[in-house]
Amino acid sequence: MAGPRVLAAAAGVAAVVLGAGVGELVAGLFVPGASPIAVIGGALIDAAPAWAKDAAIGLFGTADKLALVVGIALVLGLVAAAAGLLEARFPPWGRVAVLTLGAVGALIAPTRPDAGTFWWVPSAVAALTAALALRPLVRLTEAESDAGEQPGIDRRRFLVYGGAAAAAGVLAALGAAALQSGRQAASAVREAITLPRPAKTMPPVPATADLGIDGLAPVVTPNSDFYRIDTALIVPTVEAQTWTLRIHGMVEHELTLTWDELLALPLQESATTLVCVSNEVGGDLIGNAVWLGYPIRELLARAKPTAQADMVLSRSIDGFTASTPLEVLTDDRDAVLAVGMNGEPLPAEHGYPVRMVVPGLYGYVSATKWVTELEVTRFDAATAYWTDRGWSARGPVKLESRIDVPRAGSRVTAGDTVIAGVAWQQHTGVAGVEVQIDEGDWMPAALATAISDDTWVQWSLPWRATSGDHTLRCRAMSAEGEVQTAQVAPPAPDGATGWHAVQVSVA
Ligand SMILES: Nc1nc2c(c(=O)[nH]1)N[C@H]1C(S)=C(S)[C@@H](COP(=O)(O)O)O[C@H]1N2
Ligand SMILES: [Mo]
């Protein structure tokens, strides 16, 4: 039989689940984006020290956001249980605790970069609901503890009312989640968009660019498999028709571009591999796509940066910023304002309606999604989101290579097989890849045809596998003669280095 303490804690949890669910539903119905959990999660993401985020991405990869939400729910559950106990022992302090929790959410909400006037409301409603439910639920548990005659009756009533409160909360939260995903899916506008034909098309991807080896990453990554990394707990919704890009700061001509104006410009196709600075050696936070976009260089030429400017701080609707060297955006590379990804409008998670893509730089200093602003400035005058959190202000991609086949830890049948992978150093190009088996000599692998210097390239090497355990290593050579360093460096502050090694056992 559960003791009175356990029941009081359960009353706290039931009240808070009800409040949180109602708060989420109010947000889902009336104030999209202001979900109390998302507001608190977003603030935690922005406030977390660099090491914590590094650890989160390292531990959970692209599931880092789910892990955060589960973490918040657990903490919320603990606080709720404590509030139930407090209310039972020292009323009204349990209610005060619950209201304080809601007040924190209501105070944080307006500080979010994309906050609207009523963003505080869902947290306030959540807190009031939880506080109102807490007192009667705790009462029922008290009646239970000193019920003389019929103890079973109040217990049953508590279970019924407490259970109903919690169930209502869960239902409301599910409703909110359905509204949210409906809102994303119902970007009917996005579905209806027909992207203009490129004024400058890319030569078709050579058939010899993809070796077609089982288990090897395809040379062009399908959108559904493309890694996603960003600080947005809820994917920002930006409508193309109201989207604008403002170019301002150290420019002679400030300018604003609309969606229709952007689509009317001569767009170009370009294949560019995007990689995250958090990608570990051998990691999968990398993908390659064919982008449809307009050269940022041309827009900057119109705006005319002043002679002192050396950086462009791009800003997203959700407040994320990236610092990109001005020279990289004005030289002849395909640094684009992209609207299309592999033949369709940008998926919402990848920046719909417009994002930046810049060959040769890690995403955190170049690939701003949901971009709305380019501020021409100086590295010594402004810093970007990740720089403020300890990462380097500049992030050129480092020369790397990865073994995809055979998979690390896999069992290989003795005899003729193949070792294959990918190698990259965007905007420089890869000249060769070498493979080492155990402590043997480095052997040159065959490169597939590169799509361009801005994309990764596949490589392969036939291998007569002999039985036993083996370590396979690879290293790449760049088109400039650089050899991929063996020096092991972690992702922070400007990208991991080292050789990818995989262990396999051959039988
Ligand atoms: N608005 C916004 N843009 C962003 C980010 C972000 O957090 N917010 N993350 C950047 C980082 S760190 C990377 S690696 C790339 C990832 O792009 P993808 O999710 O389309 O793969 O987006 C960049 N653009
Ligand atoms: Mo990244």
TrEMBL record:
Organism, as annotated: Microbacterium fluvii
Xref: InterPro entries: Ig_E-set, OxRdtase_Mopterin-bd_dom, OxRdtase_Mopterin-bd_sf
Record keywords: Membrane, Transmembrane, Transmembrane helix
TM segment ranges: 66-86, 93-111, 117-138, 158-179
Keyword 4Fe-4S appears in the UniProt entry: no
A UniProt-annotated Pfam family: Oxidored_molyb
UniProt keyword Aminoacyl-tRNA synthetase, yes or no: no
Matches recorded under Gene3D superfamilies: 2.60.40.650, Oxidoreductase, molybdopterin-binding domain
Domain Oxidoreductase molybdopterin-binding: 234-382
Protein's recorded name: Molybdopterin-dependent oxidoreductase
